[in-house]
Every structure is written in C-alpha cells, then in structure tokens.
Design brief:
Largest sheet: 5 strands, antiparallel
Order of helices and strands: HEEEEEHHHHHHHHHH
Distance between the termini: 51 Å
Number of domains: 2
Shape: globular
Strand content: 5-15%
Number of strands: 5
Number of helices: 11
Mean pLDDT: 81
Structural class: alpha+beta
Radius of gyration: 29 Å
Length: 402
Amino acid sequence: MKEQTISPKDSGRGAAVAEKKDRAVVARVFIGLVLLVLLTWTAWKGADMYVRARWDAEDSAVVSIREILDRRREVLSGSDGEWEVERVLLRLSYRSGPKVGTEEDLTIIQLADSRLALIPGAEYFLLSDTFDDGAVQYSISDRYRIPAVAGVIALACGVLVAVTGLSGAKALLGLFLSLFFLLWWFVPGIARGAPPVPSAIAAVAGVSLATVVFVVRDRSLWPIAFLGAVGGAVAASLTGWAMVALWQLTGLESDSAVLLAATSPDISLRGILLASVMVGSIGAVLDVAVSVTATMSELYRYDPSIPIRRLWRSGMNVGSEVLGSMINTLILAYLGSSLPFAVLVATEGVDVIALMNDPHIAQEILRSVAGTVGLLLTIPITATVGAWWVRLLFRGREQGAG
C-alpha cells in the first residue's frame, strides 16, 4: 500500500490555519472579557446614578467619608442600664439629597462594639434624628452597597450567558420574569389583602409557566413539566396545611411575622406560612419535573415502541435518582437560612426535648418536610402525565403522517 506523505508546504499551511484559529479564540475571549467589564461598570454606575437621583428622604442621605477627625468613647445611662458609645467626628461629602456635592463635619454616635467599620473613602447611609427640643443626632446606619450588588449581579449574568450561550440567556429571562411576577404581583397582592394560598397557587403556576417556556426547548412537552411542577407545589402546600393543623402553629414564629401581625392584622399568617412553603419549594420541584420530562421524551424518541409502563417506570427511576440531591438542596437551604439560630442553640446547650417543641424549629421542620413531600409527589405526577402525554402526542403525529 502506498504511503501518503505530507509535504512541508501542506504542513506549514496546517500550522498557519491552527495558529489563526488560536488567535480567533484569544480574540473572542478578550472581547468577551472587555464586554463583561463594560457590563459590570455600566450596571455599577447606572445603579448608583439611579439611586442617588431618586433618593428624596429628608432624614437620610448617601455620604462618603473623607476623613476621620476625632473619636472618643463615653458611657451613657438610661432606664435600660448603661452602655458604651463612641462619638466620631467625620468629614463627610454628600452624594445625595439637597446637600449633594457639599462637605460637612458631623459628629455621629454609634455603639462602641459596633461591627460597622468607618473607612475613609467608603460610602454609607447617614441618618438624622430630630428630638422635641430641636436637637439633631446623626448616625451611620449601614454601608452603601447597592452599586456593588448591581455590578456583581450583572457580572454573574454575563458569565452565565458567556458560558452557556442562548440557553443561559433564556434561563435568565425566565428567572427575571418569575421575580417580576412574584415581587410586583404576588407580594403586593397579599399586602393588599388577597388570600395568600390561592395567590401562591397562581404565583407558582406563573413561575412554572415562565420557567418551562424558557427552559424546555420542545413546546409539545411544556404541559408535562408545568403540570408536574404545579402538582408538586400544591402537594407541598397540602402537606404543610395538615402539619400546621396538627402541630397548631400560628405563623407567629418569627420576628417579622410578629411585626406583620401588628401592622396588618387582617393578613392570615397561617396562609403566609403555607404560601412560603409553596414558593420555597417551586425551584426544586421544577428541577425534578423538567428532568423527568426530558428523560421520558428522549426515551420515546429513541424507541417509539417502548411500552407505556416501561416509559412510566423509567421516569420514576430518573426522578428517584434526582430526588436525593434535590432533598439535600432543599433541606440544606433551610438550614443555611437558620444557621445563626442553630449556632445559638449549640452554644447555649438547649435541651433537645425543648428544642423539638420550639415553634421556630417546628416551622423549619414543616418547610423541610412539606417541600420533601412535594418533591416526592412531583415524580409520580410528572411520570404519569408524561407517559400519557408523550404516547398521545407521538401517536397523533404518526397518524397524521400516515
């Protein structure tokens, strides 16, 4: 057999083509990095300009610390006892409000053990309290971090789109639409007196629809994932309702709930608790529903003659595999949100029996168990709907083709 030889000319041409491709990759990476930097900078500056332009509070302003002129400690006393404070003389530059662009020397008061470090060049929120005698007391409430938050969010979104392409962009659109639906319809509706549980069902349906539309590529499979996700979320709500009734929870297990009850007594806190279970579980429920739907669809495309019972069993098996990691995700998310409380319990050495009877712990257990049941029931709901729908869908296509 005659051996094929590569001439030096062909070899040089191949090396040139490879080098050209490498340069193109480097150029794309460089352009991508430049675009990410521009996106982050634009979001950072845009958020800063927007906040400062709309900041009209009379008793607060965004300020920048130019210099720390003096600081001293003293002990104050009152009806609650004594406490140590720190008086700090600052030279401030106003970034918002009627004094924007001007500098002023002010003495602010903060607790001596305050964790809020005052750093020259950093930006903060300045609060002013006016007393009945006309005296004004100034304090620094928190760091001004809105531009940094906007910049990091923009950077994360840019990296996601750069890595995943169109699918990542569609996932972001679904996420933003879901947040818009929850924050601009669901939450204000409850604040206006809408029943929490029916509103949560509608919100879950809206979030599920937005996610399925933007994530699932095959439109014919949208009903499977949608019905599976909504069914799982409703199952979680029903489980939570049974546990609330059995454990006699009032919904007043957190400071924010107590404050809400005091300011809006007409809102059902039990309903708020059940609604939070539904909204909190929808993300994991959607993951399971979409995974089962995609698997069953691929199996039927590969083998249209697969028995419907085998198709259903495959969906159940895949869902069972996904369930383990999703349960960890759900429960660890709840544990992470309550980590300070868990550490406090560990340091104080609270009795286990008393701890299990604590309403706050009971509420977190309710969220975890109800969410887990919702995940568990999402699998058979999605598998059953999927087996019926996929078989019906492809059989209709075959009849239409014939």
